[in-house]
Design a protein that fits this description.
It is a single chain. This protein is α+β, with helices and mostly antiparallel strands. It has one domain (about 5-100). It contains 2 helices and 6 strands; from the N terminus they run αββββββα. The protein has helices at about 5-10, 95-100; strands at about 15-25, 30, 40, 45-50, 55-65, 75-80. The strands form 2 sheets. It has a 4-stranded antiparallel β-sheet with strand order 1-4-5-6, with no helix packed on it. Strand 4 and strand 5 (about 55-65) form a beta hairpin. The longest helix has 9 residues, at about 95-100. The protein is elongated and about 50 Å long.
Length: about 100
């Protein structure tokens, strides 16, 4: 994964998963069609947070997809504003957890 804001600005950064994440828990429609092809039309969505070493934060929401082309929820990216004025620098695992606490 690459931070798209850094890419647009010509910067390089590390991307870290945030501790934030959610999922819905609805029943999925699973079936075999008339040709015996397995389908899974999963209406659930999941959201994960990310941040980069340059201070950008965003959330990615995605949903189920099926081999037949069905899409339950298109992938969406939501940027968190305002951007921090100082870059987040995490050199070790301990630093990453410390950054998440602040």
């Amino acid at each position: 994964m690459i931070c798209e804001r850094c890419k647009q600005q010509g910067l390089k950064s590390r991307v870290y998963p945030d501790s934030y994440g959610t999922s819905t828990a609805m029943l999925s429609q699973v079936y075999y069609d008339e040709e015996g092809v397995h389908h899974r039309h999963d209406l659930n969505t999941s959201t994960r947070g990310f941040y980069c070493s340059q201070g950008h934060r965003w959330y990615v929401t995605s949903g189920g997809h099926c081999g037949c082309g069905w899409v339950g929820h298109p992938t969406e990216v939501k940027w968190v504003d305002p951007e921090p004025s100082e870059p987040i620098v995490a050199e070790t695992t301990e630093d990453i957890y410390e950054v998440e606490k602040t």
